Fold:
Amino acid sequence: MTSSQQMAALTPLWQPRATADGSFTFFSSEFGETFHSLEGARQEAFEKFAIATALPTQAQAPQLQLLDICYGLGYNTAAALEVIWHHNPACQVTVVGLELDLRVPQAALAVMPPWSAPVQAILERLAEGQQVSTPQCQAQLLIGDARQTIQDLVRQGFQADAIFLDPFSPQRCPQLWTVEFLSLVARCLAPEGYLATYSRAAAVRSALREAGLHIGTLPIGAPQHSHEWAQGTVARWQADHLIPLSQLEQEHLQTRAGIPYRDPHLRDSAETIRLRRQAEQQVSHRESTSRWRNRWGIT
Structure:
């Protein structure tokens, strides 16, 4: 069977899509989005997650703990392990991945970019048996609604040095961007740890702040358009080592877009969560997001 036939056979629900760096991602028909940026799935895993959480520096520690929320194809975990072991081959790593559907990492084995042999073996064993135990790595996948599985980690006192927050977009998957969920995620962040996400949404940043975290921006190197003001967000318990938000970004948080999603009992549907936020926005006296965009010349 050819690689293209394997992809067709293994991904009935997710269509493989080539990205600009030569790696593949999936398109989810359920959520109407790809799992990664089409500018480069592998590149995104390194830049927006492994590097953004300061793993080259953190890797000097003898042990690290990682929490990968919405594990998906496993790219963020893979990039993190590559970076850590490049800088410190002796570092012992614990990984916990939260994933709704085990079929995603299983299907991803047919489209994997070229990871190093030890990392590739970990991804394969996680997809096949949800657990890995080696002298260098203890890893497990927790399958189910992340709103529930995160509660098990909180009860266990799990503390991650790096958290990768990578659900589908807030509009498509609001249940994993709420104040209540992110407050639980924050409780799993170690005192000196870093949380990184590709999202720059004002609602997400506001929710992280309500969870008690300081937030910083993940800037774009050479923006080409007015709407390209950041490529993500980094959060910590302390403000040090964070790139402060620009004036534009700070004002964005004060608009109606900055009203966060809420899910008081961690079980509401996406539609219910969206409607709750819309109702709050409709009665808000905050500046409209469109007016903010006009003031800053964002097209």
